[in-house]
Design brief:
The protein has 422 residues and is of the alpha/beta class. It contains 13 helices and 13 strands. Bound molecules: 4'-deoxy-4'-aminopyridoxal-5'-phosphate.
């Protein structure tokens, strides 16, 4: 965005209108929230039949008594068969676990401090450990890192994924760079899907650390907003083809497919990494919640069942994303004071403002009852050096509330921009 090209007269005229609108919002006593990427009640209702999908006596076809402890160690085979093609991991390299893939990521980072990874000589404990953090990115990845003592190095995001020239230089030159966070499809928050070339380079790049791991958080693998799903290249294949078969840990979950509070999660990787993971995990827990796993199997039936279910999600949330786009196009487009993404999937829109205005926008919106994700949340340590990026999460509120909240947001953007430039 070229700040110098902003038409100041047009901005001044828009500011007059925005002041009037803001006074009306103040009087209206609003209470709106577009902070977190949660599914709406209507979306959760789609999975209600899952609650009654099991009948007494229902065991798997192979005779697993899901009520008891015990095999299969990687989780129910039937569930892994349904999701393997969707997350791009061979069934026998895919592990199914309980709700919250974030817990698996936390566990993998934590365990790496105590147990050497395949290919690595030592565990990470007692030495500096750094992860690359493409930003804007997912705040909870950053929180896990901070919690476990991992230093974050910010890498710029592009439309094709992280800036690979920067990534390649950092991993090649520093053996304390042990990992990297990636949301490769419909990225949180920009919506970008990594290009084939980015995936190839990630698999092939030379790393100083012999136990470098890509945390491939494919949280939005099946969350399309259009009829033309983005294609993501196979990271396990890209790593194996380049002679780095153990480089990637793949994560996914049904948190935004079935129930955010009662879904199932997945970990996929090379046979050596899966063995490493299962050995650690068996100490943590004797086994996952197989009852919930079977509930998911019965509810979906097969892979096509998941895809059909996700189309229903898209029908509910696509209009909300359209409302976001319309508001930004209409209110901010002609002024040239912001840029935003137009995601084809996932849960977020990323909004870039005139530097130095993002925090002020959040403050102005809060004062009239509209909660926005804190400015800076999309950057490591909550620190957006330009104070320019905001994340919009439109899925949770009803459409009318999204429209209202967007009107407030665009009004606050205009006011904050005029304050800063004026
Ligand atoms: N990864 C990303 C990129 C996410 O956006 C989210 C949810 N906001 C998660 C992981 C969390 O997933 P889970 O509920 O499986 O822990």
């Amino acid at each position: 965005m070229d700040v110098n090209a902003i038409d100041r007269q047009a901005l001044a005229a828009a500011t007059d209108r925005a002041r009037e609108a803001y006074a009306e919002f103040e009087a209206a006593g609003l209470k709106l929230d577009i902070t977190r990427g949660k599914p709406s009640a209507e979306q959760l209702d789609l999975s209600e039949p899952m609650l009654t999908a099991l009948q007494p006596g229902d065991h798997t076809a192979s005779g697993v008594d899901v009520r008891n402890y015990g095999p299969p160690a990687p989780g129910l085979t039937e569930l892994r068969e349904i999701f393997a093609p969707l997350v791009g991991v061979p069934v026998d390299q895919l592990v199914a676990r309980d709700n919250a893939s974030l817990a698996l990521m936390h566990q993998c980072v934590a365990m790496s401090f105590f147990h050497a990874l395949p290919g690595g000589r030592d565990a990470w404990g007692g030495k500096p450990v750094k992860f690359l953090a493409p930003a804007p990115g997912y705040d909870r990845h950053f929180a896990v890192s901070v919690e476990l003592g991992v230093e974050l190095i910010t890498v710029p995001m592009t439309d094709d994924g992280p800036d690979m020239a920067v990534v390649e230089e950092l991993v090649r030159s520093d053996d304390s760079v042990k990992g990297m966070w990636c949301v490769p499809k419909y990225s949180n928050p920009t919506g970008a899907t990594y290009s084939d070339e980015t995936v190839r380079r990630l698999g092939a790049m030379e790393t100083a650390a012999d136990d470098f791991r890509i945390y491939w958080d494919n949280a939005y693998a099946v969350h399309h907003l259009t009829d033309e799903p983005a294609e993501l290249a196979d990271i396990l294949e890209a790593c194996a083809a380049a002679g780095n078969p153990d480089r990637a840990f793949v994560f996914a979950s049904t948190s935004k497919v079935t129930f955010a509070g009662g879904g199932v999660s997945f970990f996929g990787s090379s046979p050596a990494n899966v063995e490493w993971y299962l050995a650690r995990d068996f100490v943590r827990a004797i086994g996952p919640d197989k009852v919930n796993q079977l509930r998911h199997v019965r509810f979906f039936g097969d892979t096509a069942g998941v895809e059909a279910h996700m189309r229903k999600h898209a029908e509910i949330i696509a209009p909300k994303f359209e409302a976001v786009r319309n508001a930004l196009d209409h209110d901010l487009g002609p002024l040239g004071i912001a840029e935003w993404t137009d995601p084809k999937g996932g849960y977020f829109v990323s909004l870039d403002l005139v530097p130095g205005t993002a925090k002020r926008v959040v403050e102005l919106a809060k004062a009239v009852g509209v909660a926005l994700t804190p400015a800076g949340a999309t950057y490591p340590y909550g620190n957006d050096p330009d104070d320019a990026n905001l994340r919009i999460a439109p899925t949770l509120p009803p459409l009318a509330e999204v429209e209202r909240a967007m009107k407030v947001l665009t009004t606050c953007v205009i006011l904050a921009t005029e304050e800063t430039l004026g």
